[in-house]
Amino acid sequence: xxxxxxxxxxxxxxxxLGKEADVPIPGVGTVRVRTLSRAEVIGLRKATDDAHLxxxxxLTLERKMLAAAMVAxxxxxxxxxxxxxxxxxRDGRDRL
Length: 96
Prior knowledge:
- A 3-stranded antiparallel sheet has the order 1-2-3.
- It has helices spanning 9-12, 38-46, 55-69, 77-86, and strands spanning 20-25, 29-34, 70-72.
- The chain starts with 8 loop residues before the first helix and ends in a 10-residue tail after the last helix.
- It is α+β, with helices and mostly antiparallel strands.
- It is built from 4 helices and 3 strands.
């Protein structure tokens, strides 16, 4: 690998988080979400380690991640859980 292809350490260590995106949910409106850091995702995954591997763990992890990422509207884990129970499979959560 020559010097032109080597990554610059400053570029590598520059924060890239804090980005937000508007995500349309068909028939509902638009929500705004933010990126989660790797540390946040790992922490959220650890918080679900005692849950069941399938179904319940997946729903718990999704609920925690969405609650952490939602910027507008801000939703609690309980509110995301309500959204999960009221929504269909392709209601926009698959776009987040």
